[in-house]
Amino acid sequence: LGSARKASTFITKINIDITTASNEIADFGQKLSKNGVSLLQYKDSFRTIHGDGSTDDDGMDTGDPAPSRL
Where is this region: Disordered (predicted)? Predict the structure, then answer.
């Protein structure tokens, strides 16, 4: 998860849905791969885990740059 957090500092989030071009997803995946991060690890790095075990998704559907979590 540390690598995913590092990657989230340097890679702008993109909204991935049914309309996202396959080449855009592939390019984003390659950027993550260069940091040793899978797409699932990257997605999970944006969740906030609470003491009761529940999680919040910190807005992976936005196009805004990811804030540093370090």
Answer: 48-70
